[in-house]
Request: fold
Amino acid sequence: MIDGLDKVLENSGHPGLPELRGLLQELLGGRQANGCFIEQQILQPRDLRVFRLRFVIKDETRTLVVKRVKPEIARRNELVAKRWLPAIGLTDCGPPLLASIAEPSGICVWHIYHDLGQHELDCRHPDREGIRLAIEVIARMHTRFAGHHLLGEVRLHGGDFGIHFFDSNVRDAIYAVTACQPSAKQQDQLRDRLLTRLHKLRDELPQRAEALEEYGGPETLLHGDLWTINVFVVPTAHGLQVRLIDWEHAGVGPASYDLSTFLLRFSPPQRPWIFDAYKQQALLAGWHLPPAQELNLLFETAEYARFANRVIWPAIALLQDRASWGWDVLAEVDRWFEHLEPVLPREQHTSTTCATPS
Reply:
């Protein structure tokens, strides 16, 4: 038996703990296992749903990561790990999912992962080799899944980050912000600024749709949330191994959606060589990327779509729940609009062909 297993997440109030503990027992050797639970660590303090658990089994330390997710998110991550990435030969580049188990009522699912340690990319102190390996894996994922027969399945279980994502988020943000009722002059000015920005984006829809059609290239599998904290470069016996984790926002769309997120995590001087590494890997698959000016327009469209999406929810909270914090969040998004600059310098790229396979 594993001593102390009943103490895992004790008094946390999480649903499905008996099922989680039973699965942990099974993974760690069953009832014949000889060991003990020694500690747990919160890995996601904001919503308290990701934990590192440490055990000693037969005098060896075993560390696992457990995560509570909604059923639809669990299904998406399982498809990524067991179906979508394996379909393009990237099984070992996805989340290291060991097992999963649902809470009996279906309210949530617990995932258990291998612990990758503290090997996520650090954009503040960038490791050039790790970043290069990571961006090459991202490029391989994009090029290999382009036009893939499983894209319909990805779209069904994930999101759609093409021009519809931009259009629908801008329209929904306008609906929500228009309905807000400011109680102070500063709030009134903020609402007017946001509406001006959003109406301008709506007017630009035809131009942005045309650019995405001409330069966006084929639809592909997108991670959807490519912050560096979701990219691990792990030392192994066979060298460095790239792992992309937390596929909660996976979906279908142009590669520029992911690429924009990843590049913006780094300082402007770092972006050209990171992009060049992506470009070189994409060229191996026959992709020729558009010039920087056109790429920057695609990146900007992706960022503005995300900004608009971020506007919707605090505005709804203001309207439905009288949540005063909503104005603070809207002010923050307004600053994002104000400070967004081109991702790449104009001289970065000189090709005039589109991001399409040759």
User: Anything to note?
Assistant: The domain at 128-357 is CATH 3.90.1200.10 (Aminoglycoside 3'-phosphotransferase; Chain: A, domain 2). Confidence is low (pLDDT under 50) at residues 348-354. Residues 195 and 318 are 16 Å apart (CA to CA).
